[in-house]
Amino acid sequence: PKPSADPPATTVKSYACQRRTPLKHHNTFLTDALEILAENAEFNENEGRSVAFRRSASVLKALPHVVRGMDDLKNLPCLGEHSVRVIKEILEDGTSSEVESTRQSEQYQAMKALTGVFGVGVKSADRWFREGLRRPLDLIHTGQKLNLAQQAGVQYYNDLNRPVTKREAVAISHIVEKAVNAVLSGAIITLMGGFRRGKEVGHDVDFLITHLEEGAEEGLMPKVLNWLEEQGLLLYQKTTRNSYLESKDGPARPPHNLDRFERCFSIFKLEKGKEGSGTSLNTSYDSGTTEGITGTTEQPGPSWRAVRVDLVVSPFSQFAFATLGWTGSKLFERELRRWAGQEKGMSLSSHALYDSKQRYLRANSEEEIFAHLGLEYIPPSERNA
Ligand code: ATP
Ligand code: MN
Ligand code: MN
C-alpha cells in the first residue's frame, strides 16, 4: 500500500439528515444531471427510482471537494449502480447520453412545461401529453377544462416561472406581517422553505404563523385573507382548514406525509419598486403585449408581478415540529422521517414525534427534536440536501 500521502477519504453518513449539506457545493455538474433523471422518473410516476437518483445527488452535494475520478466515489453511501454509471460517463466523456437524450425528449420537455403550470400535477400533465398537448398554451387552444388553480396558473404563467428574489420575499414578508398584525396582535411570522435555508431565489415564499398563546391562532387565516383581499393584494387563494385533533396524548398522527395545519396556497400581487430601497429590479422583465388583450382580467404589467405564497398556521405547541417540517429541503424532510422510522422506530410529522412506544415527545425547538432523534443538530443553511 502507498504511504498515506493521500488526503484521508471523506466519510459521508448515509442519511441526509446526518450530514451537513450547504447551498453551494462542488459537484453541480453531476447533481444537475442526476436530478434530471430524478425528475424524469417523477414524470413517469416511478417514485423509487426518483428517490434513488435524488439520494445519489444529495451525497455528492455534501462532499467538500470536486469529484474528479471514480476513486473519489469509494466508500460513499447511497450510490446505486445506475447513478454510478451516469457519473462515470460524465467523468469520462463530459456528458451522459442518457441524461442528454432525456433532456431532449419530447416527453420530458412537455411534462416539464405542463407541470410548470401552477395547479397541474404529474397525472394531469401526463394525460394531456398523451392527448398530444405539449405546451401550456395548448391548454387554452384546445379548450381544456381547468380548475381555478390551473386557470390562475395559466394566467400568471410567466410571472410564476420567474424566480422570486430574496428582496421580493422580504417585501412579501412585510405585507404578511402587516396583514397578520392587523387582525391579531402578537402573532409570530417566520419565513420558511428555501429562503430560511439561505437560498437567494425561490419558486414561492413560505410562511409559518403562530401565537404564544395557544388557541389564539384559531380562525386566523380567513381574517388575514380578508384583509389581503380588501387591500387588493390577492390574485388567487385556496385555503384548507386544519384537521388535527388534539388530545392529552398529543396531536393526532396525520396519514402519509401530508400535514393537517390550516394552510393557504396563494398568489400575491406584488407592486414593483416596493421591495425596499437599493438598486432597481435586476431582471429585465418584458410583460409582452398581453395587457389589454384579455380585457377585464388583470395581467401582470410593468407595475406589479404575481408571486406564489404559502401560508401555514400552527398552534404554538406544535410550532417546533411545524418549523422543522416546513424548512425543507424536501429530501431532508423525507430522510428525517425515514431515520425516525427505520433507525429509531419513531414516527415524525410536522405536528409531533412519537417514540417506539407511541409516547408523544414534546419539543420547544428544532434542537430538541434532533436530540430526541439522536441526531446532531443541523442548522437550516445546512439542510440543502
Ligand atoms: P423553493 O425555493 O422552490 O420554493 P422550497 O424548499 O421552499 O423550495 P417548497 O415546495 O416551497 O420548496 O416547500 C417548502 C417546505 O414545505 C418543504 O419542506 C416541504 O416539505 C413543505 N411542504 C410543501 N408542501 C407541503 C404540503 N402540501 N404538506 C406539507 N408540507 C409541505
Ligand atoms: Mn418554497
Ligand atoms: Mn411552498
Report what the structure shows:
The chain is an alpha+beta fold and 385 residues long. The chain has three domains: 16-102, Orthogonal Bundle (DNA polymerase, domain 1); 106-155, 5' to 3' exonuclease, C-terminal subdomain (DNA polymerase, domain 1, Orthogonal Bundle); 163-279 and 300-385, Beta Polymerase, domain 2. The protein is built from 15 helices and twelve strands. It has a five-stranded mixed sheet, with helices on both faces. Strand 6 and strand 7 form a beta hairpin. Helix 1 (28-43) runs antiparallel to helix 2 (47-61), helix 1 packs across helix 4 and helix 5 crosses helix 6 (122-130). It is globular, with a radius of gyration of 23 Å. It starts with 27 loop residues before the first helix and ends in a 13-residue tail after the last helix. The model is unreliable at 277-296 (pLDDT under 50). Residues 193, 204, 206, 310 line the site of one manganese (II) ion (MN).
Q: Return the CATH architecture of the largest domain.
A: 2-Layer Sandwich
- End-to-end distance: 35 Å
Biggest β-sheet strands, sense, barrel? 5 strands, mixed
CATH uppermost class of the largest domain? Alpha Beta
- The counted number of beta strands is 12
Q: How many separate domains make up the residues?
A: 3
- Mean of the pLDDT scores? 91
Helix/strand class: alpha+beta
Helix content range: 25-40%
CATH topology of the largest domain: Beta Polymerase, domain 2
Q: Order of helices and strands, N to C?
A: HHHHHHHHHEHEHEEHEEEEEHHEEEH
Radius of gyration, in angstroms, nearest whole number: 23 Å
Low-confidence stretches: 277-296
Bound molecules: adenosine-5'-triphosphate, manganese (II) ion
- Major β-sheet strand ordering: 2-4-9-8-5
Number of helices: 15
CATH superfamily of the largest domain: Beta Polymerase, domain 2
